[in-house]
Design a protein that fits this description.
By secondary structure, the chain is an alpha/beta fold. The protein has two domains: 163 residues, Aspartate Aminotransferase, domain 1 (Alpha-Beta Complex); 249 residues, 3-Layer(aba) Sandwich (Aspartate Aminotransferase, domain 2), CATH 3.40.640.10. A hairpin with a 3-residue loop joins strand 11 and strand 12. It starts with 10 loop residues before the first helix and ends with a helix. The relative contact order is 0.17. The structure holds pyridoxal-5'-phosphate (PLP). The site of pyridoxal-5'-phosphate (PLP) has 15 residues, from helix 4.
């Protein structure tokens, strides 16, 4: 790769990575952080403020992954920091109920009318895993339908054609998942209602639920085609199966009430994560009261968590969702405008450089696919030139722009991103596309 872009000094990050590799497989506690999909060594982060990350060597980056989604208000947002500090001073955990749990629940329910009752857990994985147990119990059926490229956390039954991390590594599902469990999951192409019709016809009375990312983020960003979500709602209702909207990524991001609000659909169960914890570990599963009341201690479906509803996490979520609610009229138009400017500007830079790129975007969630497109499902996303994406990623990183380190991850921005960040990003992209072609 010949270009005028030089790599900044990352000596300390490299040393930290070597040390981390002694302790953690691949040096990481979550695989995509290892940068295997784009090559090279990942910078270590020392701190972050607003739209900027600072690495261990003092290099600064404009952040376009936002901790994989949660940091919609930017890093170290003062009201959130203060809320966490105040909660911490009253002790980090009690293992008994606190008012903070219902405080945050009240805000979640106000944003998501589909959620009548809910449970807090500590990750998105726990949320989807629990929602599926509940769906099977409620329907007395075993089969779960998911869509190729959708990721719903790493529970056994959901690691089938599961997008981003899994797609990136080319692992068909995962070793260690018994085929007896994988066989209870049907993976269908996204945006194809006839495939869902066919599945119901082939397995009459056996499908417990359809789970989906209503806006896919984990195969890169893919929007539902007009009528698709309403079609799934109608089919599940007709067939007596449940519809589970996994809004762990798109919830509170593409609209205050996520995809259900944006596309005007209802779901039986909803899962949330990422933004709802304001950067602390929180997941939610919730939905219709009759379903949720099947959970212990009221009903026969067991589910629990030592740190569920943790007071620090509740405080961070309460401050974050509260800010989004109070300022929704400014926040979402601002996210939309900044996202539009940066994504369309980069797409124009690609066109100018003669690099085929397809832009998919829903609000402050998007992907530049390195393919002429269109990209409406995982099969089409997989046509992308991942080598070109990797060169682009590094050329951007070297110029201080941190994109998600995989073609199959959505990018995000925050309310802290403004015209200065957009301008710097577009300038860097112009140079980076030259490096892609070189
Ligand atoms: C991130 C994500 C999950 C998993 O959440 P974790 O907190 O990483 O366990 C589940 N579903 C979707 C749609 C996600 O984006």
């Amino acid at each position: 790769m010949s270009s005028s872009i030089s790599t900044p000094d990352r000596t300390r990050s490299q040393a930290l990575q070597q040390r981390a590799e002694r302790f953690f497989p691949g040096g990481v506690n979550s695989p995509v952080r290892a940068f295997r999909a784009v090559g090279g060594a990942p910078p270590f982060i020392a701190s972050a403020q607003g739209a900027y990350l600072t690495d261990a060597d003092g290099n600064r980056y404009i952040d376009y992954f936002g901790s994989w989604g949660p940091m919609i208000l930017g890093h170290a947002f003062p009201p959130v920091v203060e809320a966490i500090q105040q909660a911490a001073s009253r002790s980090a955990s009690f293992g008994a109920s606190t008012a903070a749990e219902a405080d945050l629940a009240e805000r979640v329910v106000a944003c998501y009318p589909a959620i009548e009752k809910l449970r807090f857990v500590s990750s998105g994985t726990e949320a989807t895993m629990s929602a599926i147990r509940l769906a099977r119990a409620a329907t007395n059926r075993k089969i779960i339908v998911k869509f190729e490229g959708c990721y719903h956390g790493h529970a056994d039954g959901l690691l089938v054609k599961a997008g981003s991390g899994v797609a990136t590594f080319g692992i068909p599902g995962s070793a260690g998942v018994p085929e007896e469990i994988a066989h209870l999951t049907l993976a269908l192409p996204f945006n194809d209602l006839s495939a869902v019709e066919a599945a119901f016809a082939a397995h009459p009375g056996q499908i417990a639920a359809i789970i989906l990312e209503p806006v896919v983020g984990n195969a890169g960003c893919i929007a539902p085609e007009p009528g698709y979500l309403a079609g799934l709602r109608a089919l599940t209702t007709r067939e007596g199966a449940l519809l589970i909207a996994d809004e762990v990524m798109c919830g509170f991001r593409i609209a205050l009430g996520g995809a259900l609000q944006l596309y005007g659909v209802d779901a039986d169960l909803v899962t949330l994560g990422k933004i709802v914890g304001g950067g602390l570990p929180v997941g939610v599963f919730g939905g219709k009261r009759v379903l949720m009341d099947m959970l212990a201690p009221l009903g026969p479906v067991y589910q629990a968590g030592t740190l569920s509803g943790n007071p620090l996490a509740m405080a961070a979520g309460f401050a974050t969702i509260g800010y989004l609610q109070a300022h929704a009229a400014e926040v979402y138009p601002r996210l939309e405008a900044t996202s539009k400017a940066v994504t369309e500007g980069v797409a124009r830079a690609a066109a100018k450089a003669g690099v085929p790129v397809t832009l998919n975007r829903v609000g402050a969630m998007w992907t530049w696919f390195f393919t002429p497109g269109p990209v409406t499902n995982y099969g089409q996303a997989a046509q992308s030139d991942t080598g070109a994406f990797g060169r682009f990623h590094h050329a951007m990183l070297d110029q201080g722009i941190w994109l998600p380190p995989s073609q199959f991850e959505a990018a995000f921005l925050s309310t802290a991103h403004g015209p200065a960040e957009v301008e710097a990003t577009l300038a860097a992209a112009g140079e980076a596309f030259k490096a892609v072609r070189a």
